[in-house]
């Protein structure tokens, strides 16, 4: 909590002194340092947020792809802004940076895929679902939608099996998760039954995701070095084709030839880390961590003539809000220190936050809470969501109550609670940088305004961001963090906290 500082109180009698002391104790707990808070919150300005947003999410940084020079250039720009605000470096070796390596495993350009007379190129007109070594030369059989009745009529052993995707997603899964999960599961079943390869042809619903989500398959898999996604193995290939392939894939007597080679290599990404030291001699060794990520998807396949996937909402909006919060703390530090971490390579699998939790630049036990900003600039002006608000995702009722109180008294957002439920089909709680901290039993929540149709498309441009909303959420996060930074006791981790997966 924040405490009001009275310069002097001259008392005329013991009764008056006692009464004033009681009033002071009560008021200071209920109304935390209102004058200093008001002065500091004024540092969070929409004009600054809009300027920074258009700079960071503009075409100059080319979408800030994790592990690219564009991400590194954007990171240097952010560090320069933090230095100019008066924040101190808190990365490695006295810098604002914590570099780490990410390992990429991808299909090589020498790989070859041919079906009948159709020469196909991975990343353009066909996609392999996993970068695995394979060499297959086998007859192709088309089995319709792959129903048990259709499969019973065909001997698939030793064959490459082609089938059209079908099915409706259950309520607990988004169509995207249903699509990828079904293709992987059904392919494994067909391979177990003797198929040497599986070729999926998109139906109308799957075609949307073929056009929109296959850019990640083109890039391959990413992980921290030695992580599970770095393993290179051999397996029967699973190929995904567009709906336009359905006519020619049905032709009988075709041969499937697939030679897949895989390569793996490392390159750098970076976390940007800054701090504002606290003012209390003891509490300054504890940290309130404001979290976000600076990377996005970079330059990819053009959609409507635009090949730069700018990531204005995802997550330049979170970055510029976090920068604004840094300005507020630089103007008026809290009792505890404020730590600001802009994570790299979040889109690659939360790699920057996973790395920081493994190798924090401050003692891990000194981090009292994590307030994560993830996509905070779209949808209805008065709507927002806290991830980690309710069990099993809630790991600190104390922290959630602080955020709810700040919203009720200041921000006044209508809070969506559906997206934080474990049965929500998007599994949104598990897709941002608060997660590694929560798994490490550090109180952690995320502030978000949720998905929208421009998510992970070139249409996520700065012109589409509601900068007034970003400003209001930045102030909400700031007030939550200011409370946590100044209260006498740390916010606690809920006893028995355990995520469902």
Walk me through the structure.
The protein has two domains: 32-102 and 267-486, Zn peptidases (Aminopeptidase, 3-Layer(aba) Sandwich); 109-260, Glucose Oxidase, domain 1, CATH 3.50.30. It has helices spanning 14-30, 34-41, 46-56, 69-85, 148-152, 175-192, 204-219, 246-249, 312-331, 351-358, 397-411, 434-439, 467-486; strands spanning 88-89, 97-107, 112-115, 118-120, 127-128, 134-142, 160-164, 197-201, 221-223, 238-241, 255-260, 262-276, 287-293, 298-303, 306-309, 337-343, 367-373, 383-387, 414-416, 444-448. By secondary structure, the protein is α/β, with parallel strands linked by helices. The strands form three sheets. Strands 1, 2, 9, 12, 13, 16, 17, 18, 19 and 20 form a ten-stranded mixed β-sheet that branches. Mean pLDDT is 91; it is low at 1-32. It starts with 13 loop residues before the first helix and ends in a 15-residue tail after the last helix. The chain has 13 helices and 20 strands. This is M28 family peptidase. Residues 1-30 form the signal peptide. InterPro entries: M28_fam (IPR045175), PA_dom_sf (IPR046450), Peptidase_M28 (IPR007484). Keywords: Signal.
Write the topology of this structure.
Elements (H helix, E strand, L loop, with lengths): L13 H17 L3 H8 L4 H11 L12 H17 L2 E2 L7 E11 L4 E4 L2 E3 L6 E2 L5 E9 L5 H5 L7 E5 L10 H18 L4 E5 L2 H16 L1 E3 L14 E4 L4 H4 L5 E6 L1 E15 L10 E7 L4 E6 L2 E4 L2 H20 L5 E7 L7 H8 L8 E7 L9 E5 L9 H15 L2 E3 L17 H6 L4 E5 L18 H20 L15
Helix pairs in contact: 3-9, 4-9, 9-13, 11-13
GO molecular function, one term: metalloexopeptidase activity
Pfam family, one: Peptidase_M28
InterPro entries: M28_fam, PA_dom_sf, Peptidase_M28
């Amino acid at each position: 909590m924040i405490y009001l500082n009275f310069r002097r109180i001259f008392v005329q009698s013991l009764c008056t002194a006692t009464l004033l002391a009681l009033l002071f104790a009560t008021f200071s707990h209920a109304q935390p340092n209102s004058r200093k808070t008001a002065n500091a919150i004024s540092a969070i300005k929409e004009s600054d947020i809009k300027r920074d947003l258009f700079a960071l999410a503009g075409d100059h940084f080319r979408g800030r792809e994790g592990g690219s020079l564009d991400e590194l250039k954007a990171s240097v720009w952010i560090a320069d802004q933090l230095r100019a605000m008066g924040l101190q470096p808190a990365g490695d070796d006295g810098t604002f940076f914590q570099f780490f390596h990410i390992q990429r495993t991808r299909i090589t350009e020498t790989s070859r895929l041919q079906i009948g007379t159709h020469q196909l190129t991975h990343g353009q007109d066909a996609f392999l679902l996993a970068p695995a070594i394979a060499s297959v030369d086998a007859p192709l059989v088309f089995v319709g939608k792959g129903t048990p009745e259709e499969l019973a009529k065909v001997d698939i052993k030793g064959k490459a099996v082609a089938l059209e995707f079908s099915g409706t997603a259950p309520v607990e899964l988004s169509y995207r998760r249903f699509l990828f999960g079904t293709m992987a599961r059904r392919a494994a079943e067909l391979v177990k039954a003797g198929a040497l390869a599986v070729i999926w042809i998109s139906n109308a619903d799957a075609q949307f995701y073929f056009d929109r989500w296959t850019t990640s398959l083109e890039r391959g898999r990413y992980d921290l070095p030695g992580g599970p996604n770095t393993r290179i193995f051999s397996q029967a290939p699973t190929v995904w084709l567009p709906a336009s392939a359905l006519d020619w894939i049905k032709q009988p007597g075709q041969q499937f030839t697939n030679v897949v080679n895989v390569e793996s290599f490392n390159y750098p990404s970076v976390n940007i880390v800054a701090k504002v030291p606290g003012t209390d001699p003891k509490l300054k060794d504890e940290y309130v961590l404001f979290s976000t990520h600076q990377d996005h998807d970079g330059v990819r396949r053009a959609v409507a003539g635009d090949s730069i996937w700018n990531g204005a909402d995802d997550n330049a909006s979170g970055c510029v809000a976090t920068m604004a919060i840094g300005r507020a703390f630089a103007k008026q530090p809290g009792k505890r220190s404020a730590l600001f971490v802009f994570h790299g390579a979040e889109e690659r699998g939360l790699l920057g936050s996973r790395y920081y939790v493994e190798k924090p630049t401050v003692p891990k036990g000194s981090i009292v809470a994590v307030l994560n900003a993830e996509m905070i600039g779209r949808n209805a002006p008065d709507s927002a969501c806290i991830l980690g608000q309710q069990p099993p995702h809630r790991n600190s009722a104390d922290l959630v109550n602080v955020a709810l109180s700040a919203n009720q008294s200041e921000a006044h957002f209508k809070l969506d609670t559906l997206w934080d439920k474990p049965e929500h089909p998007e599994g949104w709680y598990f897709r941002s940088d608060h997660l590694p901290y929560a798994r490490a039993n550090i109180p952690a929540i995320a502030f978000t305004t949720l998905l929208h149709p421009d998510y992970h498309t070139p249409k996520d441009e700065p012109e589409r961001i509601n900068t007034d909303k970003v400003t209001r959420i930045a102030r909400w996060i700031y007030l939550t963090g200011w409370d946590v930074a100044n209260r006498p006791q740390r916010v606690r981790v809920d006893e028995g906290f355990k995520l469902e997966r």
